[in-house]
Amino acid sequence: MEIVANEFATVSVSVDDRGNGTRLRLEDLRTGTVRHLDALELESIVWAPESWMRALLDPSQHRWRDAERGPDQESLGES
């Protein structure tokens, strides 16, 4: 497990072999929320257009609206 942190977030990153194939396990250490990403999901992030990444990283779109809901809140599109 590795920790990636800056002034905005602290996330643990590890490789998980326990599921159906190898996945990257990401845990938000502030909330305990966990997300697993497989190779296709990771490749999609690499190939995503900059506009998509800007929308994903804009905390006003999702993260700061209702921090208790976590990643189940789908709000990258129009509200």
UniProtKB/TrEMBL annotation:
Highest taxon listed in the record's lineage: Bacteria
> Which named protein is this?
Dihydrodiol dehydrogenase
Q: What organism is the protein native to? A: Actinomycetospora lemnae
